[in-house]
Amino acid sequence: MDESPENRTLQSLLTRFNIDYFKLLDSVTIARSRKHIEKYYNIGDIGDFPERLPPINIKSDIDLNDNFPSLKEINDMIKKLKLSVYAPLTYVRIDQRKKYEERYDISVNK
After folding, report:
1. Is the distance from CB of 105 to CB of 96 less than 8 angstroms?
2. What is the pTM of this model?
3. Dihedral sign, CA of 25, 29, 31, 32?
4. Coil, strand or helix: which one is 46?
5. Would you put residue 41 in left (φ > 0), alpha (ψ -120 to 50) or beta?
6. In this structure, are residues 61 and 70 in contact, taking their beta carbons and an 8 Å threshold?
7. What is the pLDDT of residues 42-66, one digit of tens each?
8. Alpha carbon 83 to chain centroid distance?
9. Which of 33, 43, 49, 73 could bridge to 69 as Cys pair (CB 3.0-4.6 Å)?
10. How far apart are the first and last CA of the chain?
11. Whole-angstrom Cα distance, residue 74 to residue 66?
């Protein structure tokens, strides 16, 4: 059943599901945050939550067999590219640049 975006509403989704679905969902879902547990439960009985450690970021090259250039090399190659989409005036004749600059420059109100 493929609905158009304007017909995809919460109400239309809810009408598709049987009430038994929501009963099942409620019986298997435990939705309690740390804050909720600390507020409504005796932490002395269950113990404190463990301290949250900062995430560990692991950066890896594209492959471990060195079949491909490193991400740094790829980034350096991309930086060297002169893509017309990002610098269109570099492809306009010098004697015509002023005309195009005036026509296409965007001024921003600060």
Report:
1. no
2. 0.28
3. positive
4. helix
5. beta
6. yes
7. 888 888 888 889 999 887 767 778 8
8. 26
9. 73
10. 49
11. 13
